[in-house]
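User: what does the whole thing look like in 3D?
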Amino acid sequence: MVEQILSKFLFNNRITYLLINLVFISDVFMVKVNGFEPRIMVFLSDEFRDTVDGSTKPCFFRAPSNTLVTRVASPLRIKNEHIVKALASGIDGVLIPVCSKTDGAGRVIGHSRSSKYRIFKRLLKHLGFEPERVAVKWLQPEEQDNIDSLVNDFTEELRNLGPNNITRNFSEPVMNLDDIIKYRRWKPVDDHDIGKLLEDVKEFITSMFKQGEVDGVVGLKNECGHVVPSLFRSAPELKNLELAPKYMLAKDVRAIQKQYPDLKLGVLAYACDHRAILDLARRKQVNLDKLRMIGLTCLPYKTGACVCTHPDPPKIDIGSPTEKNDLSAVDSLIARFRELGSWSAEKRLEFWSYQFSKCIKCYGCRDACPTCTCGLRKLENEKWVGRGRIPPEFPTFHFIRLMHMADKCVGCGECEAACPVDIPLMLLHLMVAEDMRELFDYEAGCEAAMASPLKQTPDIFTTEGDGT
Amino acid sequence: MSFKSVPTICPYCAAGCGIIIKVIDGRIAGVVPDKTSPVNEGKLCIKGWNAAVFVEHEDRLKTPLVRINGKFESTDWDSAFDLISKKYAELQKVHGPTSIAVMGSGKCTNEENYLMMKFARAVLGTNNIDHCSRLCHASTVTGLGYSFGNGAMTNSIPELEESDCIFIIGSNTMEQHPLIARRILKAKENGAKIIVVDPRFIPMARFADIYIQSKPGTDVPLLNGIMNVILKEGLEDKNFIDTRTEGFADFVEIIEQYPPELAAKIAGVEPGSLVDAARMFAGAKRGNIVYCVGITQHTTGVDNVQSIANLAMLTGNIGRWGTGVSPLRGQINLQGACDVGALPNVYSGYQEFCEIDVDNDEVREKFEAAWGGKLNTAPGLTNIEMMNAASDGSLRALHILGGNPRLTDPDMNHVKKAIDNLEFLVVHDIFMSETAELADVVLPAASFAEKDGTLTLTDRRVVRLRKAIEPIGNTKADWQIICELARCMGANSFNYTSPEQVFDEIAELTPIYHGINYGRLDSPEPIHWPCPAPNHPGTPYLHKNEFIRGKGNFSTTGYLEAAELPDDDYPLILTTGRLIFQYHTGSSTRRSPKLEQEAPEAEIEVHPDDAKGLGIKNGEIVSVKSRRGEIEIKTRLTTGIKQGVVFVPFHYGESPANALTNFAMDPAAKIPELKVCAVRIEKMK
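Assistant: Here's the predicted 3D structure for the full assembly of 1153 residues, as C-alpha cells:
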C-alpha cells in the first residue's frame, strides 16, 4: 500500500516536473550531429528490473545524450496527454518499451494497447504529427539490455522522418476556408415551405397537449425578435414557436429533468438533437422513459449549413424524408474536408498550428457541446494546460477535448458555430467520426443502449487483451 | 415550473455581444451565445460564457447600508433616501449646489445615466456630472470631435471584416475585444494586411504583416513619421484632401519635421518598418485604424487621436464602407453614457449649453422646458477635477453610480485622501467595492440581469438589455433608486414607471436618438445612431459625403514628451492594461471561478534583459516603486515586452497598478496619463 502511494507520488511528480521543464531543457541537450539529431523521450517502466544482491530494483539505463528518460511505475500510468505534451514541447519522438511476460500462474503481465490508443494515433495523424513518432515496443524481461539498441533504431527511424515541425512558427493560413466557414452564418430564410412546416408542427403539438401526452414541450421560441430555447406549457403559447436558427436542446432537457424528474416532457428534436439526447441517455443523463422526442426532418438549407450526413431522425413525426440529392451540397463540402487528409503531415501541422494559434481559450467548444456534460475539467488542470495565457498550448488543449469527444460527438457542429475565431473544428470531428466507424463500427448517438468502445481503462494501455 | 431564455447583452466590453440567459424557476441556469446577434453571430469569449456567474453570488449587497459611528448598518430604503436627501438639501443651502458632484457609469444603462445627469442638473442644480469615460476615451471625444465633428467610432463592427488593411495601435484587441478581433482575423484570412503597433507583442501581433514595437508615449512622432513617408512618396489621397478637408498646408509643414529616421529614433523602432507600414496602409483601398486606450490615456491623448484622424484623412479612409477610425470603448455603455449627457459640458446628444464664450440658450431652454426649472449654466467638474476639488475641500459630497475610482483612477493614494476628505459619499453598487467601503451610504443595485434598459455599444449601435430574473434580495434597479431619491427631494419630473418612458424622453430631447424606440429595438437588426426619424434605418458609418463638422480638419500635432520619463532613480517605463480573463477592478470577474482560476494573481511583465540587470528571476516577488506609491507583485519574464518597459494589469486590489500611475492630465480632455510613468523594481528584502 505504502509502496503504491509512494510510486504514485514519485511518478506524478517526476513526469510532471520533466514535462514542464522540457521546453527549457530541450535546447540544452540538443546535440547537432550531421544536421539533425532527433530528441527522444523514453517512458521507461519500472517493470524492467535489475537484480542486485538478491533484491530487485528498477533497471539501470544509461541514456544517450539525445534521450530524455521518464521513469514510470507501470505503462498503465502513461496517459495520452503525457505523450502529446512531450510532442508539444518539441520532442521528435516518444518511445515506450513495454515488458511482456507470463507470470507463474500463466497470467499475462504485459499490457495491450487500448482502443483509445488507436484513436489517439489517428488523431495525431490528423493534426499533422507522423504516427511513427510514437512507438510502443514489447520486450521480454530477459531482453531488457536491448533497450539501448531499441533507442538507437528509433533514433535512426526519426532521423529519416525529419524533425518535429511543431517548433516552427506558422502564422499564415494555409488555405482560405471562407467557402467552408461561411456556411455557418445563419441568415433568416424566407421560405414558404418553412411556414407550412411550422404550421404542421404547431398542429402536432397542440393535439399532444389536448390528449395530455405531454405537460410541456421544449422548442425554439421567438422572444422579442430573437430565437431562443424555451418550454411551451400550453397550446396558445405555440404562436411564438420558431424552427431556426438551431439551438441544441439536449442540455435543456437534461436541466429540466434534473429539477422535475416526473414531468411528462416533449422535445422538438431534429436529427442532431435526437442523437445528442440518445448519447446523454447512454450515460444516464437523460431519462427517455419520461421524454417524448418529436422527430423533425431538417430544413434543407440547414442541412448544408451543418454538413450533416444524416439529417433525418430515426422516427419522423413531421416533414418528409430528406432526398439524396438534397445532400449534394453536403457531399461537396465533405469532399473539401477530405482534401485535408491527402496533405503531407507538415502541411497539416502548419494548417492546424495556424488555426489553433487563434484560440482565445473561451472554452466555448466545450461549453456549447450538447453531449459533454462533465465540464471536462481536465482542460483547466494546470498539469496539462498552463493557465492564464492565450493561445493555450498546441496541440494539448484541443487534443484533450478531441480525445474526450471521440465517442460522444454527434456531429451537430455547435463547437465550431460557437468558436469566436472560426477554427474549423468540424473538420477534425468528422475525421474522428469516420475513424470510429472504421475501427469500431461505432456511431455516437445511434442507439441508446450501445456501449462506447473507448470505455476501457486506464488510458492508452489496458490489462485486457493479448499483450500487443 | 418554468423554463425560459432571455435574450440580452453581455455586460463586459463594448463589443456588446448578444447572450441568452437561461432561467429555470426564476434562477439563472446558464448562458449561451445569441445566434441572431449581428456582432457575435453565436460566438462568445470566456467572459461572455461566464457573464451571469456573479449575479447570484453570495457577496451581493442586499440591503441599503448606512455608516453609523464608523460601521455599516443595514437599513431600509426609505431611511436611506431620507438621509441622503436631507444631507444634499443642507449642502445645497449652505455651500451651494456645486459642492455636490455626481458620477455616472459605463456599466449602467442609457436610461440610468440620463436620469443621473437629470438628477444632477435638475434636482441638485449642478453640472458636476462626469463618468469613467474620462479615464479611457475623453481624448477620443475631444480629438475626433475636433477633427471630424463627432467623437464616436466612425464605422460599424462587421465592416472591419471587409477592410483590406487594418492598422491597430494601442489596442490589445484579441484580449480586450475578442469578438472584434474575430473580424480582423477574418479580414486577414480574406487577404487583408494587418499592422500592429504596441510596446508588447500582443496576441494580435502574431497575425500582423508588420509589427512595430514602439516605446510608450511616442505615438505622435511615430504616426507623423509614417505620414511623412506617405507624403514624400506621393501616396496620399489628393482628391479626398482637396474636396473633404481643410488645414492641410499647416499639417504638411509639421509633418515635414518628422522624417522616418527621426520618428523611428524617438519611438525606438526601425525606420524601415515605418516606411513599410506607410506603403502598406496608403496602398489599401479600404483601410481602418483600430485604437483603444493605449492611444488615449496620455497627456498627449488628444494629439494622439488627432494624429490618427490625420492619417485616416490623408489616405482618404473615411466615409466609405469598410474604412474608418475605430476607437474601441472599454465598458459596455461608455458610448451611451456620453451620448445621454453624463458629461459636465453637454446635455444628451452632445448638445452644448456652454460653448466657450456664448451660452447656447436655445438648447438649455429646451431642457428647462422639458424638466421644468432653471438650469445651471456654468460647466461642471470632470472626474479628475472632482478628486482635486475634494482634496481642497471645495467639493463636499459625491454620488457615485456603480464605479470604483479608488482602483481605477490614477495615483490611488491621492484618490483615497480626496475621498476621505469628503463630507458625504453615496455609492450605488452590486458588491462592496474598495470605494464603497469608504462611503456613508451604500445603495444595493440590481445587476444587468435584473433590469430592463438600453445600451449603446462602441459602434453606436443601440441595443436592449432585458430583465431575466427579479432583483435579488432588497435591491433595486439604479433607475428606480434615482427616481425615488429625486422624488424624496421633492422633484416632480421623475414619475417614470418603466425605463421605456425614460427612453422616450431621451429620444424626444436628443436628435441623434430621435427615431429609436423600444419597439424598434425588439429585433436583431442593428440600429446605429444617428437615427433622426422613426423610419430612418440608422447610420452604420459616419461622414459619408460630408464630415459632421463640414470639412475634416487636419491638426498640427508635434511631439510632446510624456509627463514623466524614466531617469536614474526610476529607470523603467510602466504601462498598464487588462487581461482577457479579468475585467477592470475584478468585482465581477474575480467572483467568477472559471475566470479567476485562469489569472488569480497580478504579474508584472519584465523583459529578461532588464531582469538580468536587476538580478530578478521569473516568478520572484518584487517591489515596484514610483514617485507616488509602491506595490508588491510577482514577476513574469517575457521577451514579448519592449526592453525598458514593464506592464502591470490593473485588476488586482492586492497589487494595485494605480498606486504607481501618474495623475498628470491631457490639458484639453482631462484624461490622466495611465499608460506611461517611471518606476523602479527592487528585490524584496
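In plain terms: The first strand of chain B starts at residue 3 and ends at 9. Residues 574 and 677 of chain B are 5 Å apart (CA to CA).
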